[in-house]
Sequence to fold (397 residues):
Amino acid sequence: MKWGRPGRAVNKKGGYPFGIRPGLARTPGIMASPTPVPGVLDILPYVGGRSAAPGATRVFKLSSNESPLGASPKAVAAFSEAAGKLHAYPEGSSAVLREAVADIYGLNPERIVCGNGSDELLHLIAQCYCRPGDEVLFTEHGFLVYPIAARAASAIPVMAPETGLTANVDELIVRLSPKTRIVFLANPNNPTGTYLPVEEVKRLHAALSPETILVLDAAYAEYVKRNDYEAGIELVANSENVVMTRTLSKVYGLAALRVGWAFCPEGIAGVLNRTRGPFNVSIPAQLAGAAALRDTAFTEAAVAHNTEWLAYLAGELTRVGYRVTAGVGNFVLVHFETTPSKRTASAADEFLMQRGLIVRGVANYGLPDALRVSVGTEEANKLLVAALRDFWFATEA
Ligand SMILES: Cc1ncc(COP(=O)(O)O)c(C=O)c1O
Fold:
């Protein structure tokens, strides 16, 4: 085999030349890796939801808060049309997508920045605004991308305790310091599903210095049916230091395509646009995303499905005897017991796995005794409840 030729760099015996993979250190004995920026090696890599249940004949993935209805057929058609454009670079500002967001949500498209998933935007904000040693504040069971984004930007993650699995504004406020550059608030939060009313969010914002950015991560906003909830549009519109991030991975069913957007004050939009990749959202993602956003009937059906089955899961599991944090997103958090009880989260996880029901362990969120269950199809929801009922009786003391 020769270096530099297309094809897999393996020798005739099927091993890697020199016993190492291409791209790794080639000089035996010199194995030290170059040093990344401070913080990076402290990152525990994000682990996504599992998708395989070995041995199960049918598999129901309820581990990643994906939409059980899939994507709008109009989005799928737009994606297929994009197959004819794979040779071309995308339009760099995602204009088609920003126009669709602007129309559907009534926003100024100049203040929308699109990303390769909202994850990219969360990272970008940290990268653009944190200097080494700055602090990034978030809550105890907050979304795990926040500490990762903070560390990747050489900032210090600071965690505020929650009360009853819900963000506590007072606990956040007492942890603000002159070094706090970003406060990340998932509203509603993943994996707890709990939310802060708009008045509480405003109270938090009022306590921030103009140099601190409040990022309202509203990935699950479309599902919320509460009068005292707002995703953050008004706060962004009336301030210079609030950003709202949204995703098309959840209710719009486009997790595979990676589409997110941020509504920003002009100044912040300018900063993110200077630093994002020039073609960060692919053509298929832009076109399918715009079509999904405009198919409001499909979105309404997805929300209605969620409202019905979220209540079903919470109600039925509570009836069995479980303590359930139902939340306002597209998932519930089911609480289990600690050993020596047999009714532990890990035993339940294994039990469900054998029936092809994949849910999410949340020990890495500081919740070792809980499992997060996404709302699925009618069939999956009913199987899930039946399985957890069987597990309850199988583990009776
Ligand atoms: C609270 C929260 N924010 C952001 C995201 C990331 O979404 P995206 O797929 O747009 O990167 C998720 C995904 O699970 C989430 O739960």
